[in-house]
């Protein structure tokens, strides 16, 4: 057990830390986000210096059933260590999926007990597992027993404000063999509303000695320093703040500089090409649309609404890319004119 100490030294985000026998290169983790952190996005985030990247949530029973989408989500393409997040509601399928993942190169297995989406919790997976800690522990124990690689856990503070049970589950998970725990500082019923409660995460720090990762509303280096101070965590996880900037985790870790506006157009073009290659033209164009939208929101804020709509609705991949890049380059020109004035 780790005693509470408000004077704990705040870890340097650029320093390595360990998960079991594995050494991670820094303390900024890219969160698993379905529909966002696919292989192309993770490859870019890793190249820019994220300390650890996690696959999109892989449904355990579907993976065992050989579903093609689950296998696509499992791919690593040389990212080391390769961390796979599994979701499910039955111990048997979680254990079998963990064996498959480990047998196909997973260096870390993460258990999803944090997803608030209704289609996940409606199936009694994700954060719904926090409503029944005994059942949740049966999944954790089965997964730990099934593999030799480190097993980690990601969860929320609890199901709602009347059932804040993350400390209880975290302590029992550590006793079961879990080697790192990530806490998003909201309950499931909050979804992403309000402000993450960074202070509440410290209650988990007080009862575990394995690495603790704090998650929720971390958008800047100042946020990262504050969440570490208030939670006592060893590392931070970023999610939505990386949308439209896959380099963000590496920047927070001090492993990369924020790209200049002119460089961003090149990154957008590369990312788009990677998605089309990974998914194929038709599916890739649809999957890439949300990423193009995030890039435009961040880096072409003055784009006329009609032009934005034309880019977002086009079914011609060349048109989408050329017009999106042109919009970002045009924004660079605006910045240059401002600087010269």
Automatic annotation (TrEMBL):
SUPFAM superfamilies recorded = FMN-linked oxidoreductases
Cofactors, names only: FMN
Active site (record annotation): 115 (proton donor)
Keywords in UniProt for this one? Flavoprotein, FMN, NADP, Nucleotide-binding, Oxidoreductase, RNA-binding, tRNA processing, tRNA-binding
Q: From the Swiss-Prot or TrEMBL record, give the protein name.
A: tRNA-dihydrouridine synthase
Q: What class of enzyme is it?
A: oxidoreductase
| Entry similarity comment | Belongs to the dus family.
Give the classification, highest ranks: Bacteria, Pseudomonadati, Pseudomonadota, Alphaproteobacteria, Hyphomicrobiales
Q: Which reaction does it catalyse?
A: a 5,6-dihydrouridine in tRNA + NAD(+) = a uridine in tRNA + NADH + H(+); a 5,6-dihydrouridine in tRNA + NADP(+) = a uridine in tRNA + NADPH + H(+)
What range(s) does the DUS-like FMN-binding domain occupy? 30-305
Q: What does this protein do?
A: Catalyzes the synthesis of 5,6-dihydrouridine (D), a modified base found in the D-loop of most tRNAs, via the reduction of the C5-C6 double bond in target uridines.
List, alphabetically, the PANTHER family matched: TRNA-DIHYDROURIDINE(47) SYNTHASE [NAD(P)(+)]-LIKE
Q: Which GO terms describe its molecular function?
A: flavin adenine dinucleotide binding; tRNA binding; tRNA dihydrouridine synthase activity
Enzyme Commission number(s) from the entry: 1.3.1.-
| Species of the source | Pararhizobium polonicum
PROSITE patterns given for it? UPF0034
Q: Where does FMN bind?
A: 85, 154, 184, 239-240
